[in-house]
Amino acid sequence: MKSIIQTEKQCYVTGRADHLQEHHIFFGNPGRKLSEKYGLKVWLTMEYHTEGNSAVHNNRDFDLALKMVGQKAFEKVHGTREDFMRIFGRNYL
Prior knowledge:
Blueprint: E1 20-24, H1 31-38, E2 41-45, H2 46-49, H3 60-77, H4 81-88
């Protein structure tokens, strides 16, 4: 499924359109599959995805901020907070 958070293929943080990587907001297992199923993903440059202190995979605050964005998008498009918590096992808001 396409992202329900972004319509353009550009970095969610910077707006750049080069050197992009797709980030599944809920990663790991089964998070990645659920992110794919519900469109909970964003485009990030390597700097904000995997490289450096600002990268979502290295920065817990950024990771939690994106999870909040993901939960809000899910609730707007797919269902209630209870639905989100039943599927993802936690409330990030």
